[in-house]
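User: Show me a protein chain along with its predicted structure.
Assistant: Here is one chain, sequence first, then structure tokens.
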Amino acid sequence: MNIEQLEIFMTIAKVKSFTRAAKILNFTQPAISSQIKQLEKHYNVRLFERGSNGVTLTEAGRKFYEYAEKIMHLYSEMESEIARVSGHKKELIKLGASFSPGNYFLPTAIKNFKGNYPQAYIRVNIGHSDEIVEGLQERVLDIGVVEGEIKEARDLERYKVSSNQLILVADIHSRWRNVDEIAIAELVNEPFITREEECSLRYFLNSYLKTLGYDMNDMNIIMELTNWEAIKQAVMKNLGLAVIPYPVVERELKERKLKRIRLKDGELRFTWDTEVLIRRDEKLTGLKKVFFDFLISPYMVWKTEEELVERNKMLFI
């Protein structure tokens, strides 16, 4: 067992996906699968179970995660202390990210940053926006990148880096092929797939529905999933409709795997903001400040989105 294996294991556990973990860590999926198999062989247990809701930890996996978290915390402390006493300039940056930025634009952004600053060691903790906020307030994290509505952000400075529209999507190979719009009164009766209740999207969407005289309790929710990839797959299997940030489904819309459905009562006029958070009472220094400036620069978002488009194109060459 080694530190890299622990980092791979914890990332998979957080994002509930081998594919997404591979992108975040800049590995191939076979490479991280091989590392997990080595761990499972060493301890003679299964650490993950695969299901429609992504991968989940087994009982042994949950216990392993508990100790892995402690080991990684000690390892981070050791890295920082050894760098300090040796005079080396390797610097740990503890970054917290909610699911969409953590899975989509941050892996490319981090790769670009480390290309210019190889001495930066960026550890990414992925969770709900509220968990990232709490991590900053408790000084467990240095910088946070979150999406959507934030309920409690006291003592934090917020910097909006992008706004993406939330859209209603359906399977294009179904009765929705020739349907362009739907009334809200009809939508509440349609099978609906959504993120889990703890996700800030649910809070945000519920607030929006209330402006139309409805709320999430009125929706015909047939499935709650904890990641966007699982939701996309469920919609493409024609299990129901879903509201998803546009960047998450942009490729599927262009490939005509999904179709956008508009509301007759008026466009879904809300955006899903991505913000960078730091503590108000703390001045960032060193590579933390450089990385923060990089994250909030308009160039970073544009460059990352450009590279994502190019990477998606390469999949079909």
